[in-house]
Write a structure and sequence with these properties.
membrane; 2 domains; rod-shaped; SHOCT domain-containing protein; transmembrane; transmembrane helix
């Protein structure tokens, strides 16, 4: 008894076909993702852009308004932010 072909039944042929179709699809999908993203691993190597994100002062204000910070801590952090920003604007 030979079966349907080389000793494999119909279920084996179906399973093998599904396996190979899935494998080829996975390979094509992986390659296309890598090529579309612009680098070989599919990761974006550019730093995130500031798309209207909140500034440090806005975050500090929000935390103070939510009651996460007391007034002394808030004023201290606000002063620190102001002086560090002023120091960044000075010529080197």
């Amino acid at each position: 008894m030979m079966g349907y072909g080389y000793g494999m039944g119909a279920g084996g042929w179906i399973a093998m076909t599904i396996f190979w179709v899935a494998l080829i699809t996975l390979i094509i999908w992986t390659i296309s993702r890598a090529l579309l993203s612009g680098n070989a691993w599919g990761r974006d190597s550019t730093p995130p852009q500031d798309n209207g994100a909140d500034s440090a002062e806005d975050i500090l204000d929000r935390r103070f308004a939510a009651g996460e910070l007391d007034e002394e801590t808030y004023r201290s952090m606000r002063t620190t932010l102001r002086t560090s920003r002023a120091g960044q604007n000075e010529p080197r």
